[in-house]
Amino acid sequence: MRTAVFLTLALACNVDSADPTDTSPQPPPAVLPEVPTETKTETGPGCDYFLASSDPFDGETDVFYRDDVVMQVTEAPPSAQIVVSDRDGTVIPGTTTIEKLDVRWSGDPMTPNTFHRATLVIEGCDDQAVEFLVSTTGMPAGNVSGSTYEVDLTSGVWTEPPGIGAVIGTLIPTDALFLSPQIDGPDLSMTAAFVDMRGEQAWCLPTIPFPTAPYDDPYFEAVTQELSFEILDTEVSLGDVSLTGAFAPNGGRIDAMALSGTLDVRDVEDFLAGLDLCAVVAEAGAACFACPDSVVACVALTVEDLDATLAGDVTVVERTLDDIESDPTCVAYGS
């Protein structure tokens, strides 16, 4: 029996509270200048595009440095641009897209621990802006090699597949994972292990290696072609698995933790009580797509905002199938 991380990890814990037990030097807090109590919505003559809401919201103080900026307007504009700049007025390179009422900016990482302004520019209208503070995450994390993080698999927000992700999440054979990173210069590798009901490494389940990937301190994206695990003697595989996040400056947690991958719905149809997963996904506006065997039965999985904090005095020990099969304490494994 093979076991692997159920790619419902697919990384964004943006809470920037300090670990009360951490005595390492902390970065100085950014000074948040006064911001308007209300979003600026003045418009020019004949302007019909009022800013209704934004993410991040005006005055928000814990924004992840790689987040998009989304501004929702009262009517879909024919064209628009979001300009994001830091406290010094330096514009962060990025692009703007429009989808119905949402205007989205995606760009380069913002400056950690720094105040930013996002300005919505629509021809014929006065500029409308929100101001927010980017958290300290994004500063160098230091040496996190050998640390172990515990990921709460029940804490995330399912974004794919729409409407049904949480149902698939109930199939995960554990509520938590241990992650152990190793940094070697510009590269990162990661080993994951299941956590048992005692809060310890599940000794009779194989660990899951993530191959070496580029490391942009403190951000990582670990990718593996396939992960597999077993549900009631049925093997379930996940393809194109991606695990992403950013280590906080003191190394006490991983922010913006997400895990994504591809699931062949045929592997889990026996556990969904006759539910046609592809039909449910289609009703939500998405769609299944062709699996490697050309059958349209695969669906994208993504879970975000997973809590990942230091696990204390825990060391992940690599365990292979051979180790488990030769271990007399694991005789029930695979039976």
What this model shows, in words?
The strands form 3 sheets. The chain has an 8-stranded antiparallel beta barrel with strand order 8-10-11-12-13-14-15-17. It is globular and about 75 Å long. The protein contains 3 helices and 17 strands. The chain is mainly β. Mean pLDDT is 83; it is low at 1-21 and 31-45. It has helices at residues 165-169, 277-283, 321-325; strands at residues 51-55, 69-73, 81-86, 94-99, 102-107, 115-121, 128-133, 149-152, 157-160, 176-184, 187-194, 208-216, 219-231, 234-247, 254-264, 289-290, 296-310. The longest helix is centred in the C-terminal third of the chain and has 7 residues, at 277-283.
Task: List the topology elements.
Layout lengths: L50 E5 L13 E5 L7 E6 L7 E6 L2 E6 L7 E7 L6 E6 L15 E4 L4 E4 L4 H5 L6 E9 L2 E8 L13 E9 L2 E13 L2 E14 L6 E11 L12 H7 L5 E2 L5 E15 L10 H5 L10
Antiparallel strand pairs: 1-2, 2-5, 3-6, 4-5, 6-7, 8-10, 8-17, 9-17, 10-11, 11-12, 12-13, 13-14, 14-15, 15-17, 16-17
